[in-house]
Amino acid sequence: MVTAAQNQVAESANIGWQQRKRRLLPYAYLSPTLILLAVLTIVPIVTVFLYSLVDNVIVNQNTPEFVGLENYEEVLTHRKFRGALSNTIYFSVFSVVAHFFIGLSFALLLNSRLLGNNVKAVFRVIYILPWVFTASIIAILWRLLMNPHGVINFILLELGMVEELQEFLSDRRLALNAVTFINIWSGYPFYLVSFLAGLQGIPDDLYEAGRVDGGNAWQLFLNITLPQLKPIIISLALLDFIWTIHQFTLIWMTTGGGPMRSTEVLSTYTYKAAFSSHEYSIASTIAMIILAMCTFVAVFYVRSQRMVDE
Amino acid sequence: MIGSRREILARKFLLWIALILGACFAGLPVLWMVASSFKSNLEIFAYPPALIDYSFSFDAYRAVLSDPGQLRFFFNSYLVAILVTICTVITSILAGYSLSRYDFRYKKFLTLVIIGVQSVPPITLMIPYFGLIVWLRIYNTYTALVLTYMVFTLSYAIIMMTGYFNTLPRDLDEAVMIDGGGSFVTLWRILVPISLPGIVAVGVYTFMLAWNEFLFALTLTRTNDMRTVPIGIHLLMGQHSFEWNQMLALSVLGSLPVLILFLLFQRYFIAGMSAGSIKG
């Protein structure tokens, strides 16, 4: 610890050193973060980019051969890649849209004036529950429920909605919808929480004024609630889009990308290319494409954040 | 309020129906998981299904808790998650202080990099990562897991911490500075104690993320004595005979720490979380 006296002595002795120290101080505080991110984020990204430009990496004893953008050409024209890309987009778009609607509906329910605080507290915990579970546990949970002999099939049969037992996670026609549904279930609480905070931040005067002008509940929602929540909606949706584009664990633990690649998304495709087929150049190329997609969305995310700050 | 008593009653009724339907959607799957973890493995898919049946017992829990291998997963998960939380909190306090209280060259650029890290897909880092970790001689160690998880927790933690410090008036630290305290003293003596709610939010968030991580825990560990709970569950799933009740018991036990933390700190957590996601 530096005492006041020591500090003063140092100050009079060497003002130049003090100034330089003050200039360097913010960097010093940031240095642990910057070193960690440089070594464990920047280095791997640069490496994976270099891998995507060469052939024969890692497994091959030959020296890597520079091939330019050939890997990208190969990947982008490949049927498997296109399948994984369209699955990823389907999975992400439906997840984000459903997360938004469910999160907003639940938030509006919990924000109702007609409910007591204790009721709200209990239902809030229930609604947030899916968030507490990690992806591998969510995977087990839904494999239990969606099992051909599981409880969902039983209910659907009893209600007469299906005629035979469904293999939700191993039927080509159903699997993608099934994993999308699971992802929807597990992801909406993040929106719910943010919307709850956002709704509480809308001043009551706005609604009072709206009512004086003769607006009904629906008009108040459209003209006051939605515009006030807009900044939150935009940043949430973009962030969620980035997360679902690179969702790996949930799909890996429910279907593994199968059956017949019907739930193969870009991240499971990358993982298989790298760690099952050992085609590291191809895997790196897909990894770079995922990064590019996420960065593209992230640019909008950062912009939306600035809008809120201003 | 507008509307007659009767109208309000009708609206309340509809509201309750919606609330209960929502609770079924969110809660029933969880209830079913917990109930199934008390069944015997033969009764998991019994027809017709029952929430609680004659085979109710704690056998699955006993099996998990008496298996040293499984207990090791818990020990590893706790150790890694606690270490990650401590390291992330300290690092993000330092970084948040710098970003909140100082103006310096490249500040905008560095902030952008820190925010941007949030959008880097883990799978993109994965391929060269293995080689990097081996090269750093930390493959199959706790160090590798702790440092890796920090990459994913730090960004959000710093954003939350900076946001929290920004809400505290600068006069506060200037007063201490004038009294002769250095900037480091100011940070630890003044800012940290009054930022406790923000720090708790960062801590809980970090712990949850670290406790739940899967992809890197799977790739960066080789031996079972280094593996964490999510990987333990994965390993149970890979066995020939599906011990459903044990997997579910392990899942319930594995979710408890996060659930308890969440229930204890939900106020801080929700406030901090939304502050982070809204303001950035």
Describe this structure in words.
The complex is a heterodimer of chains A (310) and B (280). Helices cover 76% and strands 1% of the residues of chain A. Chain A has 310 residues and is mostly helical. Chain A is flat. Chain B is an all-alpha fold and 280 residues long. Helices cover 76% and strands 0% of the residues of chain B. Chain B has helices spanning 5-36, 59-65, 68-101, 107-117, 122-135, 142-166, 170-178, 183-194, 196-212, 215-219, 229-238, 244-279. Residues 276-280 of chain B have low confidence and may be disordered. Chains A and B meet through α1, α2, α4, α5 and α6 of A and α1, α3, α4, α5 and α6 of B.
CATH class of the largest domain in chain B: Mainly Alpha
Task: Give the distance, in angstroms, between the N- and C-terminal Cα atoms of chain B.
Answer: 37 Å
Helix/strand order of chain A: HHEEHHHHHHHHHHH
Mean pLDDT over the residues of chain A? 86
CATH class (first level) name of the largest domain in chain A: Mainly Alpha
Biggest interface between chains: A-B, 96 and 94 residues
Q: How many runs of DSSP E, i.e. beta strands of chain B? A: 0
* Number of helical regions of chain B: 12
CATH topology tier name of the largest domain in chain B: MetI-like fold
Question: What is the CA-based Rg of chain A, rounded?
Answer: 26 Å
Which of globular, elongated, flat, extended, rod-shaped describes the shape of chain A?
A: flat
Strand content of chain B: under 5%
If classified by CATH, what would the architecture of the largest domain in chain B be? Orthogonal Bundle
Shape of chain B: globular
Please report which band the strand proportion of chain A falls in: under 5%, 5-15%, 15-25%, 25-35%, 35-45% or over 45%: under 5%
Strand order, largest beta sheet of chain A: 1-2
